[in-house]
Amino acid sequence: IMSIICVRCNSVEKKIYVHLNYKIPCVRLLNATHQIGCQSSLSGNVGVLHVLESEENLDWVLRSGPNPPYMVILEYRLFTRSIMMKLKNGSGRVAGVAVVAPNTNPAAGFSPHNTCPNENTGVYTEKYDPTMAHCNVTVWNPLGNGLSYEEFDFPIFSLKDDNETQVIRQCYYDHNHVVNGSAPQYPLCAMQLYSHMSAVTDTATCMRRNDINFSLNPDMVCDPLGDFNVWASTRPINNTAKGHKNGESVVIAAARLDSRSFFFDIAPGAESGVSGFVTLLAAAHALRNVTQEAHLNRTILYTFFQGETFDYIGSSRMVYDMEKNQFAVDLDNVHSVLEIGQVGLRPNSTLWFHSDPVSRRNNSVNEEVNELIKKLRAAATGLNVSVEEPGFSQPLPPSSFQRFLRARPIPGVVIEDHKSAFTNRFYESMYDNGEYLNISYPPNMTPEEQLEHITDTARVSKVSKAGPPLSTFYFFLSVTQMLYSFLVQSNNSWIQQLMTSDYANHLSTFISPSPPRIFSCFLPQLYYYFWVQGAAPPNSTERQGFCVRSTVRLSKALSPAFDLHQYTSTDYSTWTESRWKPITGRIFLVASHDLEMLTLGVGIGILLTSLLLTYFFSSKAEILFSSGREPATATY
To answer: Where the protein is mainly located, per its record (predicted)?
Structure first.
Protein backbone atom coordinates (compact mmCIF):
# COMPACT_ATOMS: atom_id res chain seq x y z
CA ILE A 1 0.00 0.00 0.00
CA MET A 2 2.82 2.39 0.94
CA SER A 3 4.57 1.84 -2.39
CA ILE A 4 1.34 2.64 -4.25
CA ILE A 5 0.97 5.87 -2.24
CA CYS A 6 4.59 6.87 -3.04
CA VAL A 7 4.07 6.26 -6.75
CA ARG A 8 0.94 8.40 -6.68
CA CYS A 9 2.84 11.15 -4.80
CA ASN A 10 5.59 11.13 -7.43
CA SER A 11 3.00 11.26 -10.18
CA VAL A 12 1.31 14.29 -8.60
CA GLU A 13 4.67 15.98 -8.00
CA LYS A 14 5.63 15.57 -11.67
CA LYS A 15 2.33 17.15 -12.72
CA ILE A 16 3.00 20.18 -10.51
CA TYR A 17 6.73 20.79 -11.09
CA VAL A 18 9.07 20.79 -14.08
CA HIS A 19 12.59 20.19 -12.76
CA LEU A 20 15.59 21.80 -14.44
CA ASN A 21 18.20 19.23 -15.47
CA TYR A 22 21.01 21.55 -16.61
CA LYS A 23 21.62 24.24 -14.01
CA ILE A 24 25.02 25.67 -13.17
CA PRO A 25 25.06 28.02 -10.17
CA CYS A 26 27.16 30.94 -9.16
CA VAL A 27 28.63 29.90 -5.79
CA ARG A 28 30.12 31.73 -2.83
CA LEU A 29 33.85 32.28 -2.38
CA LEU A 30 35.52 33.96 0.59
CA ASN A 31 38.90 35.53 1.30
CA ALA A 32 40.59 37.44 4.12
CA THR A 33 38.28 40.44 3.92
CA HIS A 34 34.91 39.54 2.41
CA GLN A 35 32.70 37.15 0.48
CA ILE A 36 31.73 37.11 -3.19
CA GLY A 37 29.32 35.11 -5.32
CA CYS A 38 25.67 34.16 -4.91
CA GLN A 39 23.30 32.16 -2.74
CA SER A 40 19.63 31.45 -2.12
CA SER A 41 17.74 31.43 1.16
CA LEU A 42 17.71 28.27 3.26
CA SER A 43 14.48 27.06 1.63
CA GLY A 44 15.33 28.35 -1.86
CA ASN A 45 14.17 31.53 -3.61
CA VAL A 46 10.81 31.61 -5.39
CA GLY A 47 9.71 34.29 -7.83
CA VAL A 48 7.36 34.94 -10.73
CA LEU A 49 9.11 34.44 -14.06
CA HIS A 50 9.93 37.48 -16.14
CA VAL A 51 11.86 37.26 -19.41
CA LEU A 52 13.89 40.46 -19.71
CA GLU A 53 13.85 41.59 -23.33
CA SER A 54 15.84 44.82 -22.98
CA GLU A 55 17.43 47.02 -20.33
CA GLU A 56 14.48 49.42 -20.62
CA ASN A 57 12.22 46.54 -19.56
CA LEU A 58 13.90 46.55 -16.12
CA ASP A 59 11.32 49.00 -14.78
CA TRP A 60 8.71 46.22 -14.68
CA VAL A 61 10.97 44.13 -12.44
CA LEU A 62 12.28 46.92 -10.22
CA ARG A 63 9.23 49.18 -9.86
CA SER A 64 5.99 48.75 -11.76
CA GLY A 65 5.42 44.97 -11.87
CA PRO A 66 2.51 44.04 -9.54
CA ASN A 67 3.69 40.54 -8.58
CA PRO A 68 7.16 40.74 -7.01
CA PRO A 69 9.54 39.15 -6.31
CA TYR A 70 10.56 38.23 -9.85
CA MET A 71 12.81 35.49 -11.16
CA VAL A 72 14.50 37.19 -14.11
CA ILE A 73 15.40 35.25 -17.26
CA LEU A 74 18.30 36.94 -19.04
CA GLU A 75 19.59 36.36 -22.53
CA TYR A 76 23.37 36.42 -22.33
CA ARG A 77 23.63 39.67 -24.31
CA LEU A 78 21.89 41.32 -21.34
CA PHE A 79 24.20 39.72 -18.77
CA THR A 80 26.16 42.95 -18.29
CA ARG A 81 27.48 44.76 -15.25
CA SER A 82 25.00 47.60 -15.75
CA ILE A 83 21.95 45.34 -15.64
CA MET A 84 23.26 43.04 -12.91
CA MET A 85 24.09 45.92 -10.57
CA LYS A 86 20.60 47.37 -11.06
CA LEU A 87 19.11 43.99 -10.19
CA LYS A 88 21.42 43.74 -7.18
CA ASN A 89 20.39 47.14 -5.87
CA GLY A 90 16.73 46.28 -6.33
CA SER A 91 17.09 42.86 -4.78
CA GLY A 92 13.98 43.29 -2.63
CA ARG A 93 11.98 42.72 -5.84
CA VAL A 94 14.40 40.20 -7.38
CA ALA A 95 14.27 36.57 -6.26
CA GLY A 96 16.99 35.36 -8.61
CA VAL A 97 18.41 35.38 -12.13
CA ALA A 98 18.70 32.62 -14.74
CA VAL A 99 21.10 33.41 -17.58
CA VAL A 100 20.51 31.61 -20.88
CA ALA A 101 23.89 30.85 -22.42
CA PRO A 102 23.89 30.81 -26.24
CA ASN A 103 25.24 27.88 -28.19
CA THR A 104 27.81 30.06 -29.96
CA ASN A 105 30.12 32.75 -28.63
CA PRO A 106 28.85 36.34 -28.63
CA ALA A 107 30.42 38.80 -31.06
CA ALA A 108 31.32 41.31 -28.36
CA GLY A 109 33.96 40.56 -25.74
CA PHE A 110 32.97 39.60 -22.21
CA SER A 111 35.16 39.15 -19.13
CA PRO A 112 33.65 38.96 -15.62
CA HIS A 113 37.15 39.17 -14.11
CA ASN A 114 38.89 42.31 -12.81
CA THR A 115 40.79 44.71 -15.05
CA CYS A 116 43.95 44.05 -12.99
CA PRO A 117 44.10 40.30 -12.20
CA ASN A 118 45.82 39.28 -8.94
CA GLU A 119 46.53 42.93 -8.29
CA ASN A 120 47.51 42.59 -4.63
CA THR A 121 49.48 39.34 -4.61
CA GLY A 122 51.94 39.82 -7.47
CA VAL A 123 55.37 41.41 -7.23
CA TYR A 124 54.30 44.94 -8.17
CA THR A 125 53.55 46.51 -4.80
CA GLU A 126 54.17 49.98 -3.43
CA LYS A 127 57.37 48.61 -1.88
CA TYR A 128 58.70 46.96 -5.07
CA ASP A 129 57.96 49.83 -7.47
CA PRO A 130 55.07 52.22 -6.74
CA THR A 131 54.93 53.44 -10.33
CA MET A 132 54.04 49.93 -11.53
CA ALA A 133 51.69 48.91 -8.72
CA HIS A 134 47.95 48.41 -9.32
CA CYS A 135 48.32 48.25 -13.13
CA ASN A 136 49.30 51.93 -13.26
CA VAL A 137 51.32 51.36 -16.46
CA THR A 138 49.20 48.74 -18.26
CA VAL A 139 45.59 47.73 -17.66
CA TRP A 140 45.89 44.09 -18.63
CA ASN A 141 42.21 43.15 -18.90
CA PRO A 142 40.39 46.29 -20.10
CA LEU A 143 37.19 44.34 -20.83
CA GLY A 144 36.98 43.10 -17.24
CA ASN A 145 33.71 44.14 -15.60
CA GLY A 146 34.41 42.61 -12.16
CA LEU A 147 31.12 40.68 -11.92
CA SER A 148 32.92 37.58 -10.62
CA TYR A 149 34.00 39.60 -7.58
CA GLU A 150 30.58 40.98 -6.63
CA GLU A 151 28.32 39.64 -3.89
CA PHE A 152 24.69 38.90 -4.80
CA ASP A 153 22.10 37.98 -2.16
CA PHE A 154 20.04 35.97 -4.62
CA PRO A 155 20.83 32.87 -6.73
CA ILE A 156 22.15 33.21 -10.28
CA PHE A 157 22.09 30.14 -12.52
CA SER A 158 23.28 29.43 -16.04
CA LEU A 159 20.91 27.52 -18.33
CA LYS A 160 21.53 25.96 -21.72
CA ASP A 161 19.62 27.32 -24.68
CA ASP A 162 17.83 24.05 -25.41
CA ASN A 163 14.39 22.44 -25.19
CA GLU A 164 14.26 22.90 -21.42
CA THR A 165 14.77 26.64 -21.81
CA GLN A 166 12.06 26.73 -24.46
CA VAL A 167 9.67 25.20 -21.91
CA ILE A 168 10.51 28.03 -19.50
CA ARG A 169 9.97 30.68 -22.17
CA GLN A 170 6.68 29.10 -23.24
CA CYS A 171 5.47 29.01 -19.65
CA TYR A 172 6.26 32.71 -19.39
CA TYR A 173 4.49 33.65 -22.65
CA ASP A 174 1.45 31.52 -21.78
CA HIS A 175 0.92 32.93 -18.28
CA ASN A 176 3.12 35.97 -17.50
CA HIS A 177 3.58 37.93 -20.71
CA VAL A 178 2.52 41.57 -20.41
CA VAL A 179 0.10 42.60 -23.19
CA ASN A 180 -0.53 46.33 -23.80
CA GLY A 181 0.84 47.16 -20.34
CA SER A 182 -1.87 45.20 -18.51
CA ALA A 183 -0.92 42.92 -15.65
CA PRO A 184 -1.10 39.17 -16.40
CA GLN A 185 -3.81 37.12 -14.72
CA TYR A 186 -3.30 34.22 -12.34
CA PRO A 187 -2.17 31.48 -12.36
CA LEU A 188 1.37 32.72 -13.04
CA CYS A 189 4.48 30.79 -13.97
CA ALA A 190 7.06 30.79 -11.17
CA MET A 191 10.55 29.40 -10.61
CA GLN A 192 12.36 28.18 -7.53
CA LEU A 193 16.17 28.12 -7.37
CA TYR A 194 17.97 26.48 -4.47
CA SER A 195 21.67 27.13 -3.87
CA HIS A 196 22.09 27.85 -0.17
CA MET A 197 25.71 28.39 0.91
CA SER A 198 26.97 27.32 4.34
CA ALA A 199 29.84 29.81 4.75
CA VAL A 200 29.45 33.52 5.46
CA THR A 201 31.48 36.70 6.03
CA ASP A 202 35.12 35.77 5.29
CA THR A 203 37.72 33.00 5.39
CA ALA A 204 38.69 33.56 9.03
CA THR A 205 35.06 33.16 10.10
CA CYS A 206 34.38 30.00 8.10
CA MET A 207 37.67 28.34 9.14
CA ARG A 208 36.89 29.10 12.79
CA ARG A 209 33.48 27.48 12.38
CA ASN A 210 35.14 24.46 10.80
CA ASP A 211 37.34 24.11 13.91
CA ILE A 212 34.57 24.30 16.53
CA ASN A 213 32.54 21.41 15.15
CA PHE A 214 32.71 18.63 17.78
CA SER A 215 30.53 15.97 16.14
CA LEU A 216 31.91 12.63 15.00
CA ASN A 217 30.97 13.55 11.44
CA PRO A 218 31.80 17.26 11.35
CA ASP A 219 29.73 19.38 9.01
CA MET A 220 32.32 21.66 7.40
CA VAL A 221 31.18 25.00 6.05
CA CYS A 222 34.04 25.83 3.65
CA ASP A 223 37.20 24.41 2.08
CA PRO A 224 40.46 26.11 1.07
CA LEU A 225 40.89 26.30 -2.69
CA GLY A 226 43.71 24.07 -3.75
CA ASP A 227 44.87 21.00 -5.62
CA PHE A 228 48.30 19.78 -6.72
CA ASN A 229 51.06 21.23 -8.85
CA VAL A 230 52.51 18.86 -11.43
CA TRP A 231 56.23 18.91 -12.21
CA ALA A 232 58.75 16.80 -14.06
CA SER A 233 62.46 17.09 -14.79
CA THR A 234 64.57 16.21 -17.80
CA ARG A 235 67.00 14.50 -15.41
CA PRO A 236 65.84 12.57 -12.35
CA ILE A 237 66.02 14.59 -9.13
CA ASN A 238 66.09 12.94 -5.71
CA ASN A 239 62.69 13.90 -4.33
CA THR A 240 63.22 12.18 -0.98
CA ALA A 241 66.03 14.47 0.14
CA LYS A 242 64.46 17.91 0.19
CA GLY A 243 66.22 21.24 -0.16
CA HIS A 244 69.40 22.37 -1.88
CA LYS A 245 71.10 20.08 -4.40
CA ASN A 246 74.80 20.75 -4.82
CA GLY A 247 75.83 21.26 -8.43
CA GLU A 248 72.21 21.30 -9.66
CA SER A 249 71.00 24.20 -11.81
CA VAL A 250 67.41 24.18 -13.03
CA VAL A 251 65.46 26.23 -15.53
CA ILE A 252 61.79 26.29 -14.59
CA ALA A 253 59.54 26.03 -17.66
CA ALA A 254 56.12 26.92 -16.30
CA ALA A 255 52.46 27.19 -17.26
CA ARG A 256 49.22 27.43 -15.32
CA LEU A 257 46.54 24.76 -15.26
CA ASP A 258 43.50 26.46 -13.79
CA SER A 259 40.81 28.80 -14.98
CA ARG A 260 37.49 30.16 -13.74
CA SER A 261 34.32 31.91 -14.86
CA PHE A 262 31.30 33.50 -13.20
CA PHE A 263 29.53 30.13 -12.98
CA PHE A 264 30.84 27.13 -11.07
CA ASP A 265 32.58 24.45 -13.12
CA ILE A 266 32.20 26.15 -16.52
CA ALA A 267 35.76 27.30 -16.99
CA PRO A 268 37.28 25.94 -20.21
CA GLY A 269 40.12 28.50 -20.12
CA ALA A 270 41.09 27.80 -23.74
CA GLU A 271 43.40 30.76 -24.23
CA SER A 272 44.01 31.78 -20.62
CA GLY A 273 45.13 28.31 -19.51
CA VAL A 274 44.93 25.47 -22.03
CA SER A 275 46.92 27.21 -24.78
CA GLY A 276 49.85 27.65 -22.41
CA PHE A 277 50.07 24.24 -20.81
CA VAL A 278 49.37 22.37 -24.07
CA THR A 279 52.18 24.37 -25.70
CA LEU A 280 54.50 23.47 -22.82
CA LEU A 281 53.50 19.80 -23.03
CA ALA A 282 54.10 19.87 -26.78
CA ALA A 283 57.50 21.48 -26.22
CA ALA A 284 58.42 18.81 -23.67
CA HIS A 285 57.34 16.16 -26.16
CA ALA A 286 59.36 17.74 -28.98
CA LEU A 287 62.47 18.14 -26.81
CA ARG A 288 62.35 14.72 -25.22
CA ASN A 289 64.93 13.02 -27.42
CA VAL A 290 67.23 16.04 -27.39
CA THR A 291 67.24 16.30 -23.61
CA GLN A 292 67.76 12.55 -23.22
CA GLU A 293 70.67 12.31 -25.65
CA ALA A 294 72.49 15.60 -25.05
CA HIS A 295 74.40 16.30 -21.85
CA LEU A 296 72.79 19.58 -20.84
CA ASN A 297 74.48 21.66 -18.17
CA ARG A 298 71.08 22.53 -16.69
CA THR A 299 67.97 20.55 -15.87
CA ILE A 300 64.62 21.69 -17.25
CA LEU A 301 61.92 21.58 -14.58
CA TYR A 302 58.57 21.46 -16.38
CA THR A 303 56.12 22.92 -13.87
CA PHE A 304 52.34 23.22 -14.10
CA PHE A 305 50.80 25.41 -11.42
CA GLN A 306 47.30 25.07 -9.98
CA GLY A 307 45.18 27.85 -8.53
CA GLU A 308 46.98 30.76 -10.17
CA THR A 309 43.70 32.55 -10.87
CA PHE A 310 43.13 32.87 -7.13
CA ASP A 311 46.16 34.92 -6.09
CA TYR A 312 48.84 32.49 -7.32
CA ILE A 313 48.07 29.54 -5.03
CA GLY A 314 50.33 26.99 -6.76
CA SER A 315 53.38 29.16 -7.47
CA SER A 316 53.34 30.81 -4.05
CA ARG A 317 53.25 27.36 -2.46
CA MET A 318 56.20 26.11 -4.50
CA VAL A 319 58.26 29.19 -3.63
CA TYR A 320 57.32 28.77 0.04
CA ASP A 321 58.37 25.10 -0.01
CA MET A 322 61.66 25.99 -1.70
CA GLU A 323 62.36 28.60 0.98
CA LYS A 324 61.56 26.11 3.75
CA ASN A 325 63.59 23.25 2.16
CA GLN A 326 60.43 21.22 1.62
CA PHE A 327 60.81 20.86 -2.16
CA ALA A 328 63.18 18.77 -4.27
CA VAL A 329 65.34 21.87 -4.96
CA ASP A 330 65.58 25.33 -3.42
CA LEU A 331 65.70 28.84 -4.86
CA ASP A 332 69.52 28.73 -5.02
CA ASN A 333 69.17 25.92 -7.56
CA VAL A 334 66.87 28.01 -9.80
CA HIS A 335 68.84 29.59 -12.63
CA SER A 336 65.92 31.19 -14.50
CA VAL A 337 62.22 30.95 -15.28
CA LEU A 338 60.55 30.63 -18.67
CA GLU A 339 56.78 30.87 -18.46
CA ILE A 340 54.26 30.28 -21.25
CA GLY A 341 51.12 32.31 -20.71
CA GLN A 342 48.29 33.03 -23.13
CA VAL A 343 49.48 31.87 -26.54
CA GLY A 344 46.26 31.26 -28.43
CA LEU A 345 48.08 31.56 -31.71
CA ARG A 346 46.38 32.46 -34.95
CA PRO A 347 47.99 32.60 -38.40
CA ASN A 348 50.51 35.43 -38.80
CA SER A 349 50.44 36.18 -35.07
CA THR A 350 53.23 37.48 -32.84
CA LEU A 351 54.66 36.16 -29.59
CA TRP A 352 55.88 38.75 -27.08
CA PHE A 353 58.77 38.24 -24.65
CA HIS A 354 57.92 40.02 -21.39
CA SER A 355 60.49 40.57 -18.64
CA ASP A 356 60.63 42.47 -15.36
CA PRO A 357 62.23 45.94 -15.73
CA VAL A 358 62.88 46.26 -11.98
CA SER A 359 65.01 43.12 -11.53
CA ARG A 360 66.80 43.89 -14.82
CA ARG A 361 68.36 46.92 -13.17
CA ASN A 362 70.71 44.32 -11.73
CA ASN A 363 73.43 43.83 -14.36
CA SER A 364 73.82 40.08 -13.89
CA VAL A 365 70.07 39.51 -14.12
CA ASN A 366 69.86 41.74 -17.20
CA GLU A 367 72.66 39.81 -18.94
CA GLU A 368 70.95 36.48 -18.27
CA VAL A 369 67.59 37.79 -19.53
CA ASN A 370 69.24 39.10 -22.72
CA GLU A 371 70.91 35.73 -23.25
CA LEU A 372 67.64 33.90 -22.70
CA ILE A 373 65.80 36.13 -25.20
CA LYS A 374 68.62 35.67 -27.70
CA LYS A 375 68.28 31.88 -27.48
CA LEU A 376 64.50 32.09 -27.80
CA ARG A 377 64.82 34.21 -30.93
CA ALA A 378 67.22 31.69 -32.43
CA ALA A 379 64.86 28.83 -31.62
CA ALA A 380 61.97 30.69 -33.29
CA THR A 381 63.82 31.12 -36.58
CA GLY A 382 61.92 29.39 -39.36
CA LEU A 383 58.64 29.14 -37.47
CA ASN A 384 55.38 30.61 -38.73
CA VAL A 385 55.22 33.10 -35.85
CA SER A 386 57.25 36.23 -35.23
CA VAL A 387 58.73 37.08 -31.83
CA GLU A 388 59.19 40.54 -30.35
CA GLU A 389 59.84 42.41 -27.12
CA PRO A 390 57.39 45.13 -26.05
CA GLY A 391 60.07 47.80 -26.60
CA PHE A 392 59.17 49.93 -23.58
CA SER A 393 59.34 49.60 -19.81
CA GLN A 394 56.22 47.92 -18.48
CA PRO A 395 55.63 45.40 -15.70
CA LEU A 396 55.14 41.69 -16.27
CA PRO A 397 51.62 40.59 -17.14
CA PRO A 398 49.87 38.47 -14.48
CA SER A 399 52.11 35.41 -14.23
CA SER A 400 53.46 32.80 -11.82
CA PHE A 401 56.95 34.22 -12.33
CA GLN A 402 55.94 37.20 -10.21
CA ARG A 403 55.85 35.01 -7.10
CA PHE A 404 59.47 33.98 -7.67
CA LEU A 405 60.44 37.64 -8.05
CA ARG A 406 58.80 38.38 -4.71
CA ALA A 407 61.38 36.05 -3.15
CA ARG A 408 64.49 37.27 -5.02
CA PRO A 409 65.67 38.69 -8.38
CA ILE A 410 65.66 35.77 -10.82
CA PRO A 411 66.18 36.02 -14.59
CA GLY A 412 63.06 35.13 -16.49
CA VAL A 413 60.81 35.67 -19.49
CA VAL A 414 57.05 35.32 -19.87
CA ILE A 415 55.83 34.46 -23.38
CA GLU A 416 52.41 35.90 -24.30
CA ASP A 417 50.37 36.62 -27.43
CA HIS A 418 49.84 40.26 -26.41
CA LYS A 419 52.15 43.26 -26.28
CA SER A 420 50.27 45.14 -23.58
CA ALA A 421 46.55 44.55 -22.86
CA PHE A 422 45.21 41.02 -23.33
CA THR A 423 44.10 40.06 -26.81
CA ASN A 424 41.83 37.51 -25.10
CA ARG A 425 38.33 39.02 -25.36
CA PHE A 426 36.81 36.37 -23.06
CA TYR A 427 39.38 36.23 -20.25
CA GLU A 428 38.14 34.00 -17.39
CA SER A 429 34.68 33.56 -18.88
CA MET A 430 32.71 30.57 -20.14
CA TYR A 431 33.38 31.78 -23.70
CA ASP A 432 37.14 31.28 -23.50
CA ASN A 433 36.54 27.93 -25.18
CA GLY A 434 37.53 25.81 -28.15
CA GLU A 435 35.37 27.87 -30.48
CA TYR A 436 37.34 30.98 -29.52
CA LEU A 437 40.58 29.19 -30.46
CA ASN A 438 38.95 28.25 -33.79
CA ILE A 439 39.01 24.53 -33.01
CA SER A 440 36.54 23.18 -35.51
CA TYR A 441 35.97 19.97 -37.45
CA PRO A 442 34.42 19.07 -40.80
CA PRO A 443 30.73 18.12 -40.53
CA ASN A 444 29.57 14.53 -39.94
CA MET A 445 32.81 13.47 -38.22
CA THR A 446 32.57 10.86 -35.48
CA PRO A 447 34.23 11.64 -32.11
CA GLU A 448 37.08 9.26 -32.97
CA GLU A 449 37.63 10.97 -36.32
CA GLN A 450 37.64 14.38 -34.59
CA LEU A 451 40.25 13.08 -32.14
CA GLU A 452 42.57 12.17 -35.02
CA HIS A 453 41.84 15.25 -37.16
CA ILE A 454 44.73 17.74 -37.20
CA THR A 455 43.11 21.16 -36.82
CA ASP A 456 44.49 24.46 -38.06
CA THR A 457 44.97 25.51 -34.43
CA ALA A 458 47.26 22.54 -33.84
CA ARG A 459 49.30 23.41 -36.94
CA VAL A 460 49.80 27.00 -35.77
CA SER A 461 51.00 25.77 -32.36
CA LYS A 462 54.24 24.35 -33.80
CA VAL A 463 56.98 25.06 -31.27
CA SER A 464 60.04 23.63 -32.96
CA LYS A 465 61.47 23.30 -36.42
CA ALA A 466 59.88 20.57 -38.42
CA GLY A 467 61.78 17.33 -38.47
CA PRO A 468 61.14 14.35 -40.73
CA PRO A 469 57.60 14.29 -42.10
CA LEU A 470 56.56 11.32 -39.94
CA SER A 471 57.79 12.91 -36.68
CA THR A 472 56.15 16.22 -37.64
CA PHE A 473 52.84 14.40 -38.24
CA TYR A 474 52.98 12.72 -34.83
CA PHE A 475 53.83 16.04 -33.21
CA PHE A 476 50.76 17.70 -34.75
CA LEU A 477 48.66 14.66 -33.84
CA SER A 478 49.65 14.83 -30.16
CA VAL A 479 48.82 18.55 -30.04
CA THR A 480 45.41 18.10 -31.66
CA GLN A 481 44.62 15.20 -29.31
CA MET A 482 45.48 17.32 -26.29
CA LEU A 483 43.37 20.24 -27.50
CA TYR A 484 40.46 17.90 -28.22
CA SER A 485 40.77 16.27 -24.79
CA PHE A 486 40.89 19.49 -22.80
CA LEU A 487 38.44 21.60 -24.80
CA VAL A 488 36.02 19.27 -26.61
CA GLN A 489 35.66 15.83 -25.01
CA SER A 490 37.87 14.67 -22.16
CA ASN A 491 36.48 11.14 -21.95
CA ASN A 492 37.89 9.76 -25.21
CA SER A 493 39.84 6.69 -26.29
CA TRP A 494 43.20 8.51 -26.23
CA ILE A 495 42.79 9.65 -22.63
CA GLN A 496 41.33 6.28 -21.61
CA GLN A 497 44.68 4.70 -22.44
CA LEU A 498 46.01 6.59 -19.41
CA MET A 499 43.11 6.65 -16.96
CA THR A 500 39.64 5.28 -16.36
CA SER A 501 36.49 7.00 -17.60
CA ASP A 502 35.64 8.23 -14.08
CA TYR A 503 38.88 10.22 -13.90
CA ALA A 504 38.70 11.31 -17.54
CA ASN A 505 35.31 12.96 -16.94
CA HIS A 506 36.97 15.29 -14.42
CA LEU A 507 40.00 16.07 -16.56
CA SER A 508 39.02 19.70 -17.13
CA THR A 509 37.97 20.42 -13.53
CA PHE A 510 41.02 22.33 -12.51
CA ILE A 511 40.44 23.31 -8.87
CA SER A 512 39.25 20.20 -7.06
CA PRO A 513 39.68 18.37 -3.75
CA SER A 514 42.04 15.76 -5.21
CA PRO A 515 43.65 15.00 -8.57
CA PRO A 516 42.96 11.92 -10.69
CA ARG A 517 45.93 9.94 -9.40
CA ILE A 518 46.88 6.79 -11.26
CA PHE A 519 47.50 3.51 -9.44
CA SER A 520 51.07 3.57 -8.16
CA CYS A 521 53.38 0.58 -8.36
CA PHE A 522 55.94 1.93 -5.89
CA LEU A 523 57.70 5.20 -5.14
CA PRO A 524 61.51 5.18 -5.34
CA GLN A 525 63.75 8.20 -4.81
CA LEU A 526 64.45 9.23 -8.41
CA TYR A 527 61.48 8.02 -10.44
CA TYR A 528 57.76 7.64 -10.09
CA TYR A 529 56.27 4.40 -11.41
CA PHE A 530 52.60 4.27 -12.29
CA TRP A 531 50.21 1.97 -14.07
CA VAL A 532 48.31 3.00 -17.20
CA GLN A 533 45.44 1.15 -18.85
CA GLY A 534 46.95 1.07 -22.32
CA ALA A 535 45.09 0.54 -25.58
CA ALA A 536 42.97 -2.43 -26.54
CA PRO A 537 44.28 -4.44 -29.53
CA PRO A 538 42.09 -4.64 -32.65
CA ASN A 539 39.06 -6.92 -32.23
CA SER A 540 39.55 -7.03 -28.46
CA THR A 541 38.09 -5.28 -25.42
CA GLU A 542 40.94 -6.24 -23.07
CA ARG A 543 43.37 -3.37 -22.58
CA GLN A 544 47.08 -4.13 -22.45
CA GLY A 545 48.18 -2.12 -19.41
CA PHE A 546 51.77 -1.47 -18.47
CA CYS A 547 53.89 0.29 -15.87
CA VAL A 548 55.56 3.60 -16.79
CA ARG A 549 58.72 5.06 -15.26
CA SER A 550 58.60 8.82 -15.11
CA THR A 551 60.03 11.85 -13.33
CA VAL A 552 56.53 13.35 -13.05
CA ARG A 553 55.61 14.32 -9.49
CA LEU A 554 52.82 16.03 -7.62
CA SER A 555 53.37 18.70 -5.02
CA LYS A 556 50.85 20.45 -2.83
CA ALA A 557 49.10 23.50 -4.30
CA LEU A 558 47.57 24.78 -1.08
CA SER A 559 48.18 28.33 0.07
CA PRO A 560 50.72 28.56 2.93
CA ALA A 561 48.20 30.77 4.74
CA PHE A 562 46.24 27.64 5.73
CA ASP A 563 49.30 25.79 7.06
CA LEU A 564 50.28 28.90 9.01
CA HIS A 565 46.66 29.58 10.11
CA GLN A 566 47.08 33.13 8.82
CA TYR A 567 43.57 33.55 7.44
CA THR A 568 43.94 37.33 7.13
CA SER A 569 47.27 37.15 5.30
CA THR A 570 48.16 39.79 2.72
CA ASP A 571 51.14 37.77 1.44
CA TYR A 572 49.36 34.56 0.43
CA SER A 573 46.04 33.55 -1.09
CA THR A 574 43.24 33.11 1.45
CA TRP A 575 40.48 31.98 -0.92
CA THR A 576 37.99 29.39 0.31
CA GLU A 577 34.86 27.95 -1.25
CA SER A 578 31.62 27.55 0.67
CA ARG A 579 30.00 24.16 0.90
CA TRP A 580 26.39 23.78 -0.19
CA LYS A 581 23.49 21.38 -0.26
CA PRO A 582 22.24 19.86 -3.55
CA ILE A 583 21.61 22.48 -6.23
CA THR A 584 18.05 22.36 -7.58
CA GLY A 585 15.72 24.37 -9.78
CA ARG A 586 12.13 23.94 -10.92
CA ILE A 587 9.18 25.82 -12.46
CA PHE A 588 5.50 25.59 -11.60
CA LEU A 589 2.24 27.55 -11.66
CA VAL A 590 1.37 29.67 -8.66
CA ALA A 591 -2.09 30.88 -7.68
CA SER A 592 -2.93 34.44 -6.65
CA HIS A 593 -2.34 35.56 -3.09
CA ASP A 594 -6.06 36.14 -2.57
CA LEU A 595 -6.90 32.64 -3.76
CA GLU A 596 -4.21 31.20 -1.51
CA MET A 597 -5.65 33.13 1.47
CA LEU A 598 -9.16 31.99 0.57
CA THR A 599 -7.97 28.38 0.34
CA LEU A 600 -6.21 28.74 3.67
CA GLY A 601 -9.28 30.30 5.26
CA VAL A 602 -11.57 27.55 3.96
CA GLY A 603 -9.11 24.95 5.19
CA ILE A 604 -8.97 26.52 8.67
CA GLY A 605 -12.77 26.75 8.70
CA ILE A 606 -13.12 23.07 7.82
CA LEU A 607 -10.56 22.20 10.50
CA LEU A 608 -12.37 24.18 13.20
CA THR A 609 -15.73 22.75 12.13
CA SER A 610 -14.35 19.21 12.29
CA LEU A 611 -12.90 19.89 15.76
CA LEU A 612 -16.24 21.25 17.02
CA LEU A 613 -18.15 18.31 15.56
CA THR A 614 -15.64 15.90 17.06
CA TYR A 615 -16.03 17.54 20.47
CA PHE A 616 -19.81 17.52 20.22
CA PHE A 617 -20.03 13.87 19.22
CA SER A 618 -17.50 12.92 21.84
CA SER A 619 -19.35 14.67 24.69
CA LYS A 620 -22.75 13.26 23.64
CA ALA A 621 -21.47 9.79 22.74
CA GLU A 622 -23.33 7.99 25.57
CA ILE A 623 -26.62 9.50 24.48
CA LEU A 624 -26.11 9.34 20.74
CA PHE A 625 -24.68 5.85 20.61
CA SER A 626 -26.46 4.13 23.54
CA SER A 627 -28.80 1.21 22.69
CA GLY A 628 -31.90 0.12 24.58
CA ARG A 629 -31.09 -2.78 26.97
CA GLU A 630 -33.33 -4.93 29.13
CA PRO A 631 -32.65 -4.63 32.91
CA ALA A 632 -30.66 -7.40 34.52
CA THR A 633 -33.71 -8.63 36.56
CA ALA A 634 -37.21 -8.47 35.36
CA THR A 635 -40.53 -9.11 37.27
CA TYR A 636 -43.42 -10.56 35.47
So the answer is: membrane
